[in-house]
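ok trying this again, last paste got cut off
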Amino acid sequence: MASFPPRVNENEIVRLRTIGELLAPAAPFDKKCGRENWTVAFAPDGSYFAWSQGYRTVKLVPWSQCLKNFLLHGTKNVTNSSSLRLSRQNSDGGQKNKPREHIIDCGDIVWSLAFGSSVPEKQSRCVNIEWHRFRFGQDQLLLATGLNNGRIKIWDVYTGKLLLNLVDHTEVVRDLTFAPDGSLILVSASRDKTLRVWDLKDDGNMMKVLRGHQNWVYSCAFSPDSSMLCSVGASKAVFLWNMDKYTMIRKLEGHYHDVVACDFSPDGALLATASYDTRVYIWDPHNGDILMELGHLFPPPTPIFAGGANDRWVRSVSFSHDGLHIASLADDKMVRFWRIDEDCPVHVASLNNGLCCAFSTDGSVLAAGTQDGSVYFWATPKQVPSLQHLCRMSIRRVMPTQEVQELPIPSKVLEYLSYRI
């Protein structure tokens, strides 16, 4: 397991500048809480970007138009500015799939967002139902919003219309994630200590309740092949679930504080978890080994200090789609960009009061949300992946660690395929 190296000269680390900002409109009244932007999300096809502006408002903007606005008007794009406002209308007919801006009133404070897209050949798992209220086509794009009152609302991205209202959680819905396989299976993580599995192709029927967390569940993420789910929460909890059988695979031990974010690598061979203990761990989800530790405090804190108020809580972590880079966001007002083969940041950026981050679908931009409901964007480090890395990702997409270790290949190649060098 790698650890954070001796302190790096700050002059050697490249500091990035934002390429754009989406600033939340000024609140009509002053509130101490409720304005936070807990989640930012990009549509799977890259067509839309969504974020919570605070209180109960979610904004959907066409991502390509958003980037164009940054180029035309500089970095700042105040979301209530009429001069920069994107065209917005309820679309129908031939205009349905043309990206349009929407502002959605969710009715309560929004804690989580997730996009889901449909693949027609992925049928509902509920085979006994012959009639459905909704028949989602190939071009369907949905947005799920998790609310303060425990409800989950499902919206049509193209029209901004409410489709479903899922009611079963008893506390805040802290995170949402759709299965990447187009099945429209949705998993929700809540402060009521449970994860719930919903089948949107069966009109939002709740299929299963996953129990095991003894405290709040903060985040959840599907593996790229949709077979595995990671959930993280308070009391150092990191759980892995088999999503074919809905059973727990294993609990990962290693963090010293609440674990608040998780993300799989694009090939599913790595799992990143972020914790208030100042660390991001990179795990092998197939055997539970910690492969790397990305430290946010030097020297690394003792377990007692890491488990308390250390001023370096890591709030969010995200894997880039190239499988080479990771972004993390911490309370020290820094966004860090890491490489999976280096244990110190390769780039950093300044950000006050950051709460969440996510890479764009093509991996070229990182978006980060803040406590005041705004979003900031950075161009991500550019690097052409090596042929070896591309081959490794291709192999690991279809082979778990146990199968890789059985291959009759040289030990160095085996270590490389296992992300141990």
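PB: full thing came through this time. The domain at 10-25+32-74+99-121+135-384 is CATH 2.130.10.10 (Methylamine Dehydrogenase; Chain H).
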